[in-house]
Amino acid sequence: MKFRHIMKINWLVKNPFYVYILSFSLVFILYQLGWSDLYPKLTIDLLIFFGFTFLFSIIIGFIIQLKGYVKYRPINPNLKKRALIFTIIICFGHLIEFIHAGGIPLVNLLLNHNVIEYSEYGIKTFHVFLIPFNSFAIIYIFHIFISSRKRSVFIYYLIVLLPSLLIINRGMFIIGITSSFFVYFMSHNKRIGLKLVFATMTVILTILYFFGVIGNIRSGARDPLYIPLQSEVSQSFLRSSIPIEYYWTYLYGASPIANFQNTVNKTSFSQFDFQRFITFELFPDVISKRISNVIDKEPIGVLKITPWLTAGTIYAESYRYAHWFGPSILYLYLVFIVVFMIALVNNKSSYHVSVVSILLTIMFFNTFANMLVFAGLILQLFYPILFSLLERYSFRYGKN
Fold it and tell me: Considering only CA atoms, which of 20, 132, 53, 129 is closest in space to residue 359?
């Protein structure tokens, strides 16, 4: 008997709550490899917390799936004009910032000119609106391309993706590509063939291998064993036949859980700090930075296992502010954001797929840090809300 097809993935990758479970499950599987003796043993309270969030995510994810609240719909090909308008706006916006900065950061870097630090780059306030809009446009235009298969739209997509490279914003580029993949998988309603599975795994393993190669080159004295030894690589891994390059995937993929567990182990409480929790865990960073000046407080930070592994999942810092109340409230807030956005920009809107893609990306990268406060990602949601309201108004009053 030939098994040409194995499963559909559309139902899995279009549900934010299933992606939450999937992404954290992959991290836990990676953690269990035990390739570093530096990583602490996972405690029962941490596992129980994730167990409850997984159970609740299964329930609410099933409801969303059963009711059909999330659906992929192709966009009307005529909306490619909208893609052109978005592209022109983005190009014009970045041109203004290049003039303001006195050059293009990537070009300045290649020419060994003075490069402005990313935190200092851009026109204040204007930059805060431009980057999320650019990131949203990457997703929306890609959706139009998937729907129309027009070469011109794909060119628009490449153009709006280009600024992330020109301003050397790796986060914007990675988030844009990740969100685009989610749009593609949402549109792919066919069964996955074994050939595609093997091809995908080969591509992933190749990318992860070269990720390790780059890590080895950038590490101390370009010694492949420098970082593994600094992170107390296990002897069992060194004796194995697994290429050392794959250790980097384990190191960075599992370290956020290690930092979260280390934070749980080493945090002592005298009193809860809900003021900091609300300020730094619920508000986008562009807002919390301004609030911090008023309350004269800074984020407390994650208790890291080593100074150069900084990520702590979405939950580590919230634990330091309010014990397990912090992560619990943060998870419920995450649930509220997802449900609210899916209900507000429903599957009848041409912006629905973009919203779901952004939510999927938030869920995926929450394994590293709190994406609800990362303005470059969370503020993307402002634009589909705005445009969907304008879309309803135009439809209602016959102004299409």
Answer: 20
